[in-house]
Amino acid sequence: RAGVNVCIGTDSLASNPTLSILDELRFLRHEYPEIQCERLLEMGTLSGAKALGLEKSVGSITAGKEADLVVIPLSRDGDWREALDSMSEPIAVLSRGCFVVDNR
Question: How far is CA 16 from CA 5, 64, 100, in A?
C-alpha cells in the first residue's frame, strides 16, 4: 500500500539450504497462505527485475522481453498455482530463449 517494491531473493548458503527463488516462494506459500499466489509470483519475478532495474527486459512474459523461463511439470489438470504447492523440480530453464538446462 505504501508503494514499496517487495521482492524475493536469497542471501547465501550460510542461511538457506539452496539459492532457489522457487524454494523461497514455496516457503512463503506454506508459512503465509494468506498471500495470494499471484502476488508471490510477482514478488519472485517482476518485482525482482524492478529491484535490479531490469524490468524493461525481464521479469514478465511480454513481447520484446528476454525469454527467461523455468519449466515446472504440473499434473494434467493442474494450474500454475500447483507449482508453488508441489515439490516438483524444474525440468528446464531458458535464458534469453535458449535452453541452459534441459531435463525433459
Answer: 23, 34, 24
CA gap 70, 72 in Å, rounded:
6
Q: What is the pLDDT of residues 60-87, one digit of tens each?
A: 999 999 999 999 998 877 788 889 998 8
Residue type, 8: I
Helices (H), 12-81: 21-31, 37-44, 46-51
* Predicted model pTM: 0.86
**What does the block give as the cell for 3?**
508503494
Q: How far apart are CA 80 and CA 18, in angstroms?
A: 22
pLDDT tens column, 7-19: 998 888 988 889 9
How far is 67 from 6, CA to CA, in rounded Å?
A: 23
Among residues 37, 29, 40, the alpha carbon closest in space to that of 6 is found at 40
Cell numbers 534469453: residue: 96
**Residue 76: exposure state from Cβ atoms within 10 A (0-12, 13-18, ≥19):** exposed
